[in-house]
Amino acid sequence: MAKTQAKGGPSVEGKALSYKEYRKALFDLHVELVKLQEWVVQTGSKVCIVFEGRDGAGKGGTIKALTERVSPRVFRVVALPAPTDREKSQMYVQRYLPHLPAAGEVVIFDRSWYNRAGVERVMGFCTDADAVAFLKALPLVERAIVESGVILLKYWLEVSPEEQTRRLEARIHDGRKVWKLTDMDLKSYSRWYDYSRARDAMFEATDTGIAAWHVANSNDKRRVRLNIISDVLSRIPYTAMPRKKVTLPKRQKPDGYKEPDHPFKYVAERF
Questions:
Q1: 60-71 pLDDT, tens per residue?
Q2: How far apart are CA 208 and CA 196, in angstroms?
């Protein structure tokens, strides 16, 4: 896939972004996300953000950066396991629908109903005919979601084959990341071009005016997190909501209270 540039200027890939620069930019974006959160709650808005991409593209890290400083009661992350036998017998998108946002919620899908167009099609968990029928019907489903009042944003994180290799190899050797690497990841890794064809067919069928795809270059983890959060904020018409001025009240007086004389078991201070 040729690199797709987002509107707003050329890529700055290759120019190092220091950790200090990254944290400063992320701090400013987190402040805006809190404003967005207050707007969503007070206006009863409904937001749904879909993240898709190959293994190692950076979906999890981007979602973590997006939700780091907001309330999990408002920003809810959905990452569904493999379907049960009962769910396999249902209409494919049915198990995702109960997780769509209600008023005052932002729901983030870490992979979504697009599994049918990607991993299921490539790995043979559904037939090509199943995938084609799904892609044909999905624009109508997404139109219904949007027309119900949901702000639907769809992001594809595009990683190069070289960077994906580097990241998956890191999962093999880094004890903090070994849990991220599954047998399915290894099988998927070997089928790069099958995934490319499936992705292209998915875009062709579902990149619509009412539910467009937004492609983000994810070779630089820091930049893609900042770029996607900034893009999310730019696509939602939130405004800063009025806040009451807050001051801490005075604490009550001890009124004879004494610390208990009890042999507590304290946590060892090893650091």
A1: 999 999 999 999
A2: 19
Show the domains of the chain with their CATH numbers: 19-235 (3.40.50.300)
Note the pLDDT tens digit of each residue in 91-124: 999 999 999 999 999 999 999 999 999 999 999 9
Q: Where are the beta strands (DSSP E) in the chain?
A: 46-53, 75-78, 105-110, 150-158, 213-217
The residues pairing with 75 across neighbouring beta strands, listed in sequence order, are 106
Please name which of 114, 82, 95 lies closest in space to residue 195, comparing C-alpha atoms: 114
Q: Which helix (H) or strand (E) holds 67?
A: helix 59-67
Question: What element of type H or E holds 217?
Answer: strand 213-217
Contacting residues for 123 by C-beta, under 8 A, at least 6 apart: 184, 187, 188, 191
pLDDT band at 16 (very low <50, low <70, confident <90, very high): confident
Q: Per residue in 138-169, pLDDT tens?
A: 999 999 999 999 999 999 999 999 999 999 99
43 three-state secondary structure: helix
Q: How far apart are CA 61 and CA 77, in angstroms?
A: 13
Alpha helices by DSSP H, 150-261: 161-173, 183-189, 192-206, 221-235
Contacts with 37 (C-beta within 8 Å, 6 or more apart), sequence order:
70, 71, 74, 75, 106
pTM over the 0.85 mark: yes
Pick from 101, 130, 104: nearest CA to 117: 130
Q: How far apart are CA 112 and CA 118, in angstroms?
A: 10
